[in-house]
Amino acid sequence: MEEKKGGSGRRIGRRSLILGGAAAAVGTGAVLTRDELSRLWWQVPGVEKPRVAGAVDYRGARWVAASSANWRRADRPDDYTIDMVIIHVTQGSFDSAVRVFQDPGHGAASHYIVRKDGHVTQMIRELDVAYHAGNRGYNERSVGIEHEGFVDRPQDLTDAMYAASARLTAQICRRYAIPVDREHIIGHVEVPGTDHTDPGEHWDWDRYMKLVRQAATTATPA
């Protein structure tokens, strides 16, 4: 939004306009403190929150930035509710997935990649909309997690991968109050309009959901 000029010629920023409107909306019956106004400001949809370069949302994850062409800056969950986790399989190695997510011509990337050994890499902040689901609405409401391997190779889906991914998903569900069920934790194949088949027939959903539920009972804020 462009800044506007007041009657005196002084520029009025977006923050002043929104905070002024918020205070006016309260009416004469109450006075908001500066601290209350500050909290209200960061809850306004579309207003960008402070960012720290290289910060991760999941403790223990390594930050490797995806190309900015493969995601859209946002301020979730204030502008888009996050109520879903989408499970992917990379159809390639961990290194190849990182390379394509850093390629501006690829047009897609997920928030996280889980390696076979359980290592977690974050490439897009959960605040932002990753182009991972092939469906705009699902992109806006979800966090995407890739898993290293191929859908036709069950040996790629290791114990370490399942365990690490389950802990990650449990933390995401806790952070956004997402129900731990198959309506809210889904595979890429279940996204409407997609032509993908991952995570594939070898992905053990019963095992995975059990691990997520177990992790959710012991999860602490990331």
Compact overview of the structure:
The protein is an alpha/beta fold and 222 residues long. The chain is 31% helix and 13% strand.
Describe this structure in words.
By secondary structure, the chain is α/β, with parallel strands linked by helices. The chain folds into 2 domains: 4-42, no CATH class; 62-218, Lysozyme-like (3-Layer(aba) Sandwich), CATH 3.40.80. 31% of the residues lie in helices and 13% in strands. The chain has a 6-stranded mixed beta sheet, sandwiched between helices. Helix 1 crosses helix 2 (34-42) and helix 5 (159-176) crosses helix 6 (205-218). The two termini are 33 Å apart. The model is unreliable at 1-30 and 35-39 (pLDDT under 50).
Task: List the SSEs and their pairings.
Layout: E1 4-5, E2 11-12, H1 14-26, H2 34-42, E3 62-63, E4 71-72, E5 84-87, H3 94-101, E6 112-114, E7 120-122, E8 129-130, H4 136-141, E9 142-147, H5 159-176, E10 185-187, H6 205-218
Parallel strand pairs: 3-7, 5-9, 5-10, 6-9
Antiparallel strand pairs: 1-2, 4-8, 6-7
